Amino acid sequence: MMILLNVVILVAGFVALIKGADWFVDGAAGLAKNLRVPGLIIGLTVVAMGTSAPELAVSTSAAIQGANEIAISNVVGSNLFNTLIVLGICAVIHAVPVDKSVLKRDFPVMMFTMFLLLLGSSSTVLFKDYLTDYSMADNVGLIFRWLGILLLVIFVAYIAYLVVNARKHPTEEDEDYKAIPVWKCFLLILIGVALIIAGGEAVVYSAKEIARAFGMTETLIGLTIVALGTSLPELVTSVVAARKGEVEMAVGNVIGSNIFNLMLILGVSSAIHPVAVNAASVWDMMILIGISIVTWVMCLTSDKVKRPEGIILVLLYAADMAFAILR
Asked: Where are the extended beta strands (E) located within 95-213?
């Protein structure tokens, strides 16, 4: 009976996510046109912040309750999902053009943050053979409060730079575009955010209950079920954006959400309570860095992420999930 109820909640969450993402993309795109701000910047800020709200709620709550495995694995798992599944599926649906500013500015910021987290949280084991010295569940490092505060400072500086730079270089208004009133744009965004957050929370709650019924560990739940659930807004929003032709917003949403997850979510979580990092999470962070480098090189070789490359990304995610389950 409880499993059936959780399935109903899961379906309701999906519906809320899809409808909320649809309205959110319309509102964000309309706001970008009204403010003459590139859709890429809106994707990196407003849309990314809205779709990262479930991760923020889950990881912050986990940090307060001391559920460290969920706090860190949720962020790492969400970024893996964003990079491989969200970007991969968008590319399968429609070839995704890669803006040069993303490659020169946002990808390096994301990579720098990942290396900073890896070095700051696991410096004690990077020069040791922790594969034999530690089990996957053993704590091997800590994301200290000072590192969380540093991440938040970098995050504020990054967002400020994006907004100032976008205002200095406004886009030309499309004469054929029928402007949506600003008040309606904000209303669509607010309703969309509410539905996205509610849908994400419903999916995460029901998925966790179903997963626990099958005896999955907390680390695996955080990396797979919780990460998938909290990343559904990014997936749905980016797919909807790609189908509506807002492909720049789709790329900006993926990269922006990854940066938000790393800087804002882990920053807030560790500033509230230092987050312990186990050996499995160190593995996952190194895998995330490797996959991000592969994706970066993939984007550098072409001005688009094409369908074959999208399929490769999806397959890489399947391989990583298989490794996570088998270990």
From this structure: 96-97, 139-143
